[in-house]
Amino acid sequence: MIERVPVGALVSNVEITAATVQRGDIIQVGGRAHRVSDLFQLAQGAKQLLFESGELLTIHARTRLVAVRMRRR
Q1: Could you give phi then psi for residue 45, rounded to 5 degrees?
Q2: pLDDT tens string 6-18
């Protein structure tokens, strides 16, 4: 489960790809929000995302997703 947004954090929706995804990004998959806890580089620019829940998602180099990213003020 995703914890509450810290006070003073700015939240923005960003389009991400395998090249721009970051730890901490929150991605909605199947109607559930998942926070990226780790990333693994794969062949041909793909990445495997490990979520805090333990689930994995592999994205191709051309995959585009929308994520929530928190930025500190």
Answers
A1: 85, 0
A2: 566 688 899 999 9
